[in-house]
Model the fold of this input.
Amino acid sequence: MEIKTIILIDEIFTPDSSRFWPKDQYEPGKSQPSFDKQFVRDYLETLDWDKTPPGPELSPDIVLKTSEKYLQALNILIPNKA
Done:
Protein backbone atom coordinates (compact mmCIF):
# COMPACT_ATOMS: atom_id res chain seq x y z
CA MET A 1 0.00 0.00 0.00
CA GLU A 2 1.40 3.37 -1.04
CA ILE A 3 1.25 6.17 1.52
CA LYS A 4 0.49 9.55 0.02
CA THR A 5 1.18 12.91 1.57
CA ILE A 6 -1.29 15.74 1.16
CA ILE A 7 0.30 19.16 0.86
CA LEU A 8 -1.73 22.34 1.25
CA ILE A 9 -0.50 24.81 -1.39
CA ASP A 10 -3.14 27.50 -1.29
CA GLU A 11 -5.51 28.45 1.47
CA ILE A 12 -8.15 26.84 3.62
CA PHE A 13 -11.02 28.28 5.58
CA THR A 14 -10.36 31.95 4.86
CA PRO A 15 -13.19 34.40 4.18
CA ASP A 16 -12.44 34.08 0.45
CA SER A 17 -12.08 30.32 0.08
CA SER A 18 -15.04 29.62 2.36
CA ARG A 19 -17.96 32.01 2.17
CA PHE A 20 -19.05 33.34 5.56
CA TRP A 21 -22.38 35.16 5.95
CA PRO A 22 -24.11 36.47 9.07
CA LYS A 23 -26.86 33.91 9.74
CA ASP A 24 -29.32 36.51 11.06
CA GLN A 25 -29.10 38.49 7.79
CA TYR A 26 -29.25 35.57 5.35
CA GLU A 27 -32.00 35.85 2.71
CA PRO A 28 -32.27 33.11 0.06
CA GLY A 29 -32.08 34.34 -3.53
CA LYS A 30 -30.39 37.64 -2.67
CA SER A 31 -26.81 38.85 -2.59
CA GLN A 32 -25.67 38.22 0.96
CA PRO A 33 -23.72 40.54 3.24
CA SER A 34 -20.42 38.73 3.56
CA PHE A 35 -16.96 38.81 5.07
CA ASP A 36 -15.09 38.30 1.80
CA LYS A 37 -13.82 40.64 -0.87
CA GLN A 38 -16.87 40.37 -3.13
CA PHE A 39 -17.42 44.10 -2.65
CA VAL A 40 -13.98 44.68 -4.25
CA ARG A 41 -15.06 42.59 -7.24
CA ASP A 42 -18.31 44.57 -7.38
CA TYR A 43 -16.36 47.84 -7.23
CA LEU A 44 -14.07 46.74 -10.07
CA GLU A 45 -17.12 46.00 -12.21
CA THR A 46 -18.06 49.71 -11.99
CA LEU A 47 -14.72 50.79 -13.52
CA ASP A 48 -13.83 51.17 -17.17
CA TRP A 49 -11.30 48.32 -17.09
CA ASP A 50 -11.03 45.49 -19.61
CA LYS A 51 -9.80 42.99 -16.97
CA THR A 52 -6.35 42.63 -18.46
CA PRO A 53 -3.24 43.20 -16.33
CA PRO A 54 -2.30 45.38 -14.75
CA GLY A 55 -5.40 45.89 -12.68
CA PRO A 56 -6.42 49.32 -11.49
CA GLU A 57 -5.10 50.62 -8.19
CA LEU A 58 -7.61 50.41 -5.40
CA SER A 59 -8.51 53.58 -3.56
CA PRO A 60 -7.43 53.89 0.08
CA ASP A 61 -11.12 53.64 1.02
CA ILE A 62 -11.53 50.24 -0.67
CA VAL A 63 -8.29 48.99 0.94
CA LEU A 64 -9.52 50.15 4.37
CA LYS A 65 -12.91 48.46 3.89
CA THR A 66 -11.14 45.23 2.94
CA SER A 67 -9.10 45.33 6.15
CA GLU A 68 -12.21 46.08 8.20
CA LYS A 69 -14.08 43.10 6.70
CA TYR A 70 -11.26 40.69 7.54
CA LEU A 71 -10.96 42.06 11.08
CA GLN A 72 -14.72 41.78 11.51
CA ALA A 73 -14.59 38.11 10.47
CA LEU A 74 -11.66 37.48 12.80
CA ASN A 75 -13.47 39.07 15.74
CA ILE A 76 -16.55 36.92 15.12
CA LEU A 77 -14.61 33.68 14.68
CA ILE A 78 -12.09 34.35 17.45
CA PRO A 79 -13.54 36.92 19.90
CA ASN A 80 -11.11 39.26 21.70
CA LYS A 81 -8.14 38.42 19.44
CA ALA A 82 -8.06 41.46 17.15
Remarks:
- The chain has one domain: 1-82.
- DSSP finds two helices and no strands in the chain.
- The longest helix spans residues 60-77.
